[in-house]
């Protein structure tokens, strides 16, 4: 287990408050690592490394509200309902995969604003070529199907 501890902490940046995971992440932005033929979320692994257990049916919750944090002092176990209540309270229910947080994002918020303003009156196809996306992506941006959180 000592080797796993060393490998784990080689991918942690300890700040004054949070311990930030610098290793690989899943599509939701949570860190993960392999240990003995199993993949663990980095915050769960940290909790277990600290000598804690996770009750059956519970998941890990970030008290600091930072999904990159693996500081066991900032973690607690809870039910799925507890986690949903946290997300409703913090108004983060739909933030994980929005705009620049999306795992496949190609545009910045500023580019989206320029596309919507379309100062040169370009076609969707021309805008798509300029920004490296297809015309359907441009259409979804302009019609606020995507990036609808931007004003």
Kindly describe this structure.
This protein is α+β, with helices and mostly antiparallel strands and 151 residues long. It has two domains: 2-89, Homing Intron 3 (I-Ppo) Encoded Endonuclease, Chain A, CATH 3.90.75; 99-142, no CATH class. It is 34% helix and 15% strand. It is built from six helices and six strands; from the N terminus they run αββββαββαααα. The chain has a two-stranded antiparallel ribbon. Strands 3-4 form a two-stranded antiparallel ribbon. It has a two-stranded antiparallel sheet with strand order 5-6. A hairpin with a 2-residue loop joins strand 3 and strand 4 (38-41). Helix 5 (124-131) crosses helix 6 (135-142). The relative contact order is 0.10.
- Residue fraction in strands: 5-15%
The CATH class of the largest domain, by name, is Alpha Beta
**How many distinct domains?**
2
What's the mean pLDDT score?
87
Radius of gyration: 20 Å
Catalogue the unreliable spans: none
Write down the secondary-structure element order.
HEEEEHEEHHHH
Structural shape: elongated
Give the strand line-up of the largest sheet. Answer: 1-2
Structure summarized in a few sentences:
The chain has 151 residues and is an alpha+beta fold.
What are the SSEs and their pairings?
Elements: H1 2-9, E1 12-14, E2 19-21, E3 32-35, E4 38-41, H2 42-49, E5 59-62, E6 75-78, H3 80-89, H4 109-117, H5 124-131, H6 135-142
Antiparallel strand pairs: 1-2, 3-4, 5-6
Helix pairs in contact: 5-6
Describe the structure using short key phrases.
single chain, 151 residues, alpha+beta, Homing Intron 3 (I-Ppo) Encoded Endonuclease, Chain A, two-stranded antiparallel ribbon, two-stranded antiparallel sheet, 6 helices, 6 strands
